[in-house]
Amino acid sequence: MVNGQQVNSDVAPQIVNNRVMVPISMVAEALDANVGWNQKNQTVTINDKSIPSQEDIWKQDLDFIGSGWASLKNIIGTFMIGYDERDDALIKSVSVEGYDKLPIGGMYPAIMDYKIVDAQELTHSLKVRVKVILYEDILKGEIWDFVITKRKIETMKKVDFFNVDEYTVFPGLSYSK
């Protein structure tokens, strides 16, 4: 029974070592979740259908230690703050010498939020894809690719644009078209 409703399965529940065993896919699907199987890692993933799944764009397993990942996020975060505040010195602090993509003062729209959506190891650097939500008079979304070498941003390129009808930064702070 799931939420008071009987759920039928092609495999009957079993008791093994005093534990009830049921097919996880049947239970997850009855709870309206997506179920996935990763053959390489021999793992099952269960995700709430109301949360959009995230695509592995470059389909590459990355080997980051925690501090390496934190450093990468901080580099991108520092750039985003500098870009949004039009702070050339802050952007230069996380960019390679000669980086020339500095924002012009007083430009809009403002960066409402951003999220790293994938990363890819290149020969001597990392490419990092970031989803950016912007707002001025209207909401809009952009996809930015960063190339980071030796903990400095080498390039940043806007590679795609998408429509955003509404966006919730956190509960209580939402924007709409």
UniProtKB/TrEMBL annotation:
It comes from the Bacteria. Gene3D superfamilies: Copper amine oxidase-like, N-terminal domain (3.30.457.10). Residues 2-50 form the Copper amine oxidase-like N-terminal domain. Pfam families: Cu_amine_oxidN1. This is Copper amine oxidase N-terminal domain-containing protein. It comes from Paenibacillus polygoni.
